[in-house]
Amino acid sequence: MVELWEGYALPTIIIVAQIMAIVGPLLIAVAYLTLAERKVIGAMQLRKGPNVVGPFGLLQPFADAVKLMMKETIMPSGANRIVFIMAPMLTFILSLVAWAVIPFGEGLVVSDINVGILYLFAISSLGVYGVIMAGWASNSKYPFIGALRSAAQMVSYEVSMGLVIITVLMCVGSLNLSDIVMAQKGDYGLLNWYAFPLLPMFVIFFISILAETNRSPFDLPEGESEIVAGFMVEYSSMSFALFFLGEYANMILMSAMTAILFMGGWLPPFDIAPFNWIPGPIWFSLKIAFVLFCFLWVRATFPRFRYDQLMRLGWKVFLPFTLFWVLLTAGVLVGFDLLPAAH
Amino acid sequence: MIIQALVFYVFAAVTIAAGLMVITARNPVHSVLFLILAFFNAAGLFVLMGAEFLAMILVVVYVGAVAVLFLFVVMMLDINVEKARQGFKKYLFIGGAVGLVLLVELVLILSSTVVSTDVSVVASVPIPSLDEVHNTRALGQVLYTKYVYLFEASGMILLVAMIGAIVLTLRKREGVRRQVIADQVNRSREEAVEIKKVSSGSGI
After folding, report:
1. Residues B23, B31 contacting (CB under 8 angstroms)
2. A230 near A137, Cβ under 8 Å?
3. B18 shares contact with chain A (CB less than 8 Å)
4. Quick one: which of A317, A154, A319 has its CA closest to B162?
5. Is A32 exposed, middle or buried, given 0-12, 13-18 or 19+ CB atoms closer than 10 A?
6. B71: contact with A, CB 8 A cutoff
7. Which has fewest Cβ within 10 Å: A195, A247, A292, B112?
8. To the nearest whole number, what is the mean pLDDT of chain B?
9. Nearest chain B Cα to A176, which residue?
10. pLDDT (average), residues B17-23
11. Among all residues of chain A, which has the CA nearest to that of B132?
12. CB A232 within 8 A of CB A243
């Protein structure tokens, strides 16, 4: 009995508690990200944004959630039922499972696996299935066009994202996310983060994650002025809400990935008195919030790309440039004998 | 250990079931979705064996890229399953023969009558013990030292195949106006704008 408790039951309870401790705050963060988006874009366009429900509109996300839940789930008559229902679930699940390997602080991670960054890359590359399945199962023209656009777009930008990750990995010498963060710890604080030595890669990575999460200015899969809402046209009520939650959770995930790869994860900007009093998870959240703000800033600033321009940018600009930068980084690391030691 | 065995059987059973569904499903899109499920469970089996790098690469390459393109193509083609089944009896013999040859080959390899007994010794030489290095590093060390020429050769073959595919499908269409961003950026004010003095009462 004791063996059963200590061998199986207790670890299960601990893991479930850890999952709850991540998913709960994540869903609240998603809810307030939708509010922050409307507030930030409102401020940039000299509007007030939502300010009626609750103080400063703070209860707006919950009002929206309740409204969505009250609505009727509509199933198009020609739809492929199982795939149609599975697609939003898949999107939402994939946006949650990736958080298993994200380190929030030193040792604060559910699963500290050796190939953490590959796991993140794999999960983020699966996100396209939710979109394709939704587009195909809806059995209607606009969703299908949206799904095809999304498939081509996400596959294209993954290539340059992969090469950017390779440059970072060459500097770190490990695929483990905690190792990647610790490799950015140094005497110069902020200046040791890879955002500075690898600045062009940082910029390309940021643009690629915009494309990877289907956010403006690359939101062609749902481009509402041409194909209404793309793959989400036929969805309503909670199935639509799951897509919505999945998209925003993915934004937060990609921001976390940027923070880990380029902005030193949970490390404080300067390792001196007032800064290193603040615990790591708070620095990590601040960095995520900064990247998220850039997401919204871009959305308020840039018009949508045309489709051929999007493909040109991915294949003809980013791919050759990142490839060149991989070679350059490798050359510098080998030439100046800076390669990370094997451990 | 019980949990591991249990998880293994779940992964293995789902892989086989999904593999069967790939060839029996009526809808081609469902076939591809089952194929993805099979890939995914195979990755799970890799993780159970301690080969986490291979598992992740399997998901990134096959599920994340190859299967996406499969799905892409299958969705766009309007495949008529009934028509494809028409010549079933005619091709049964050839198909069966190919299957038989593959089966015999597999049996021969597994029963190790044609495999040299030294092969395990030869193959295991360059692989360091997993206690010293984890399998990503071990794989890299083998791939980029002992097998570097073969590795580069396979890369070249893939590159040639890619260029071949591009050459075969590339066509120059007449009357297409392409955007040349460099020209647009290099345009000066003098070329773009013309200022005319228009006297009132008459046009240009």
Report:
1. yes
2. no
3. no
4. A319
5. middle
6. yes
7. B112
8. 82
9. B136
10. 90
11. A343
12. yes
Q: What is the mean pLDDT of residues B60-74?
A: 83
B56 touches chain A (CB under 8 A): yes
Give the pLDDT score at B79. 65
CA of residue A25 relative to chain centroid, distance: 16
Is the pLDDT at B17 greater than 90, yes or no? yes
Verify whether the Cβ–Cβ distance B53 to A119 is below 8 Å: no
Tokens at residue A315, please?
């294949």
Residues in A closer than 8 angstroms to B179, CB to CB, are: 308-309
Query: How many Cα atoms sit within 13 Å of A7 on the Cβ side?
Result: 8
Contact residues for B55 (Cβ-Cβ < 8 A; gap 6+): B43, B44, B46, B47
Cβ of residue A261 closer than 8 Å to a chain B Cβ = no
For residue range A270-288, list pLDDT tens digits in order.
777 787 788 888 888 999 9
- Name the minimum distance, in Å, from the CA of B40 to any CA of chain A: 11
Q: Which positions in chain B touch A309 (Cβ < 8 Å)?
A: 179
Q: How far is CA A166 from CA A102, A147, B14, in A?
A: 18, 28, 33
Chain B residues touching A151 at Cβ < 8 A:
68, 71-72
Question: Does B76 lie at the interface with A, CB-CB under 8 angstroms?
Answer: yes
Nearest CB to A175 within list B65, B136, B181: B136
CA distance A35 to A29: 10
Q: Is the dihedral of CA B195, B196, B197, B202 positive or negative?
A: negative
DSSP state of A231: G
CA angle A15, A32, A138 (to 5 degrees): 80
**B132 band by pLDDT with thresholds 50, 70 and 90:** low
How many residues in total does chain A contain?
A: 343
Residue B126 pLDDT more than 60? Answer: no
Peptide bond into A340 cis (omega under 30): no
Interface contact B76-A121, CB threshold 8 A: no
Judge whether A195 and A267 are in contact, CB under 8 Å: no
Helices (H), chain B: 2-24, 28-48, 52-57, 67-76, 81-84, 88-110, 119-124, 135-141, 148-169, 181-186, 189-192
User: Nearest residue of A to residue B70 by CA position?
Assistant: A151
Inter-chain contacts counted by CB atoms under 8 A, chains A and B: 71
Contact (Cβ atoms closer than 8 angstroms) between residue A261 and residue A209: no
Residue in B27, B65, B134 nearest the CB of A114: B134
Query: Tens digit of pLDDT for each residue in A78-105?
Result: 778 888 888 888 889 998 898 888 888 8
Q: Which of B52, B76, B179 sits opposite A115 (nearest CB)?
A: B52
Residue ranges of E strands in chain A: none
Average pLDDT, chain A: 85
The answer to whether residue B98 neighbours chain A at the CB level (below 8 Å) is no
* The pLDDT of residue A307: 82
